[in-house]
UniProtKB/TrEMBL annotation:
Keywords: Glycosidase, Hydrolase. InterPro entries: Bact_Beta-galactosidase (IPR050347), Beta-gal/glucu_dom_sf (IPR036156), Galactose-bd-like_sf (IPR008979), GH (IPR017853), Glyco_hydro_2 (IPR006101), Glyco_hydro_2_cat (IPR006103), Glyco_hydro_2_CS (IPR023230), Glyco_hydro_2_N (IPR006104). The keyword Hydrolase applies. The lineage of its organism: Eukaryota, Viridiplantae, Streptophyta, Embryophyta, Tracheophyta. It is an enzyme of class 3 (hydrolase). Residues 366-646 form the Glycoside hydrolase family 2 catalytic domain. GO terms for molecular function: beta-galactosidase activity. Coiled coil: none annotated. Residues 654-747 form the Beta-galactosidase domain. It catalyses: Hydrolysis of terminal non-reducing beta-D-galactose residues in beta-D-galactosides. GO terms for cellular component: beta-galactosidase complex. This is beta-galactosidase.
Amino acid sequence: MASSSLVGHLVFPPENGHKSLSGYWRFFLASSPSKVPENFHDSAFHDSEWKTLPVPSNWQMHGFDHPIYTNFTYPFPFDPPFVPKENPTGCYRTYFQIPEEWKGRRILLHFQAVDSAFFAWINGVPVGYSQDSRLPAEFEITDYCHPIGSGNKNVLAVQVFKWSDGSYLEDQDHWLLSGIHRDVLLLAKPSVCISSHFISEYIDAPSTRLRFRYGIEGPKRVTCSTLHDKQIIKITDVQVDNCKILELYVEVKIDYSRETSKENILAKYTLEAALYDTGGWYKSDGYSDLISSNVANLKLNPSSSRRAVPGFRGYFLEGKLGVPRLWSAEEPNLYTLVVILKDESGSIVDCESCLVGIRKVSKAYKQLLVNGHPIIIRGVNRHEHHPRLGKTNIEACMVKDLVLMKQNNINAVRNSHYPQHPRWYELCDLFGVYMIDEANIETHGFDYSGHLKHPTLDPGWAPAMMDRVISMVERDKNHACIICWSLGNESGYGPNHSASAGWVREKDPSRFLHYEGGGSRTSSTDIVCPMYMRIWDIVKIAKDPNEIRPLILCEYSHAMGNSNGNIPEYWEAIDSTFGLQGGFIWEWVDQGLLKDGPDGSKHWAYGGDWGDFPDDLNFCLHGINWPDRTPHPAMHEVKYVYQPVKVSFLEQTLQIKNTHFYETTEGLEFSWAVHGDGWKLGSGILSFPLIKPQSSYDIEWQSAPWSTLWSSSSAEDIFLTITAKLSQSTRWVEAGHVISSTQVQLPAKRKFVPHVLTPF
């Protein structure tokens, strides 16, 4: 799989191919759509008296309106699909010019995300409408911009609605904040260009095949609603440890609907592709010389071309890679794929690049497999949250989250409960984190309506629900970290979910499908995925021979307040029961917002602190980290139960087990320490042969280096601590970081009782 972006900013960005419009925009907040200033979108409108607002941001975090926190209660009168007339509406205006270098190119306006719905105008001309607070919208504006070189500034006006009918599908348990909260970009593309690609896998042993689906688009924009591509690749369950050759296939699609000639478009254009090695995941800098690390070239195979949908032609580029390094959360190996489109003169017309993680997700009886091995999900649920910025993301915060996760043995994240910032996926690919990507659908509040069915049971809601699932898959389909798609959260269960599941399985059978609604065991989920199920119940399901799916808790160990107390018992069950493959703690971080008190002090605010109603008070504070990412004490327990090296004391033997599925203990340094009655008695390096994945090593008691200390000590309580540290630095931590530490109480010695002699 691969991370991709139309902007292509990770590697080899097209020269002058994108321009950020983020910055300070003119802003006015109207109390309702009817109070919006007349003709505010016209070029001649005077906005000099308006205030400014940073884009991206949530306007509530800058003194406009106030934040609202509810768990499941809708924050407006419940009357679907209608929203109240008193609906705060943000009016935005900004100015831009098109770079001279873009002359003759198509101009696209790209919004990464806007909450909750919006109209956009260029120079007074409406260019589009979109809703879905967590996914992008893109409009072609070439014909509406002033001629390049005219010196005239273009005016972009945006009208954002706080509530829309789509808000009924966005009833998640988090802060409700509005506005343009992700970046806005201008993109320049040629008239015939690479528009999208879908990388799917066919891995076999000893040879491996990987198929890349690329799209080349003409002047007419292709969206998920107009491009109906059929997945034709069949995947079989195989072991892939020993694959020697990777066969690469890049499927290219060209839209030449505006071309005069309907002959083969490649009579005018040439396609090339190359794969580069990005360096080992274990390197602390993660960099390598891409130019000198070409590992595969891909060439056109005309015999593989096929007709797709009207106006498109399919082409395949093929190549081979020897001994590919596979991607997993333990070893996140990545390659860089570069695809280039050239014209008849040999000049580069367009290029795209993406990070490629070669890996395979497959099924076995009661197991989810990655590269042929069952994995254990040591996961957390993660909302997008910043204590000062609200729902606006900054890369430093994302990196901090991933560093903390990796340092505390967390290997998986569920995006709760919506698609997240596109950079988050790129970083998860890079750091090595398994992901459930979740559609922006939650209708929890319908449970309490008393008279209305969930939207999933109403065919009138089907287009909106399916669009959210389809758009998520289309945006994120090329990321190695995503091993599972989710149809949403707490939205009941019905035909609309079944239809969405059918579309996803047809589009991308290479991943699992997840949905908890309907009892977590419906036909629309490939995982039994309950939330907060008791330990004996998950064990009972795992031992049911008729249930062939693995069980992974989508939410468990709710972390509000003094909590997470029984997480060791959960993991005793998970570690000892076939069919249990882990779970996702609720949740990663307290959703507190930094607020100034009347005396100038600052505190973490929660629902109701702004006089907001309805509210659910401090129920938003249920993470294993404070809002500023300072770990709660429970994090130490999470790190312990999630640690990959397990130590147990058996009779006359100390057993050290490596629970990794791919890594040996080669990169670890083990040490021991003995304490008696609180005093350190001795310590040292613990040497033994490296332990292979899913294997153990037994240390006989009499030959252990601490044996003499134990036998000679007069202490009442003696404890042995075994520690495993990283011997090399990685992307997320310096060498010497403790990944596992276990303390066991040594068996009590038989006390010496002197024999008292009595005289005869």
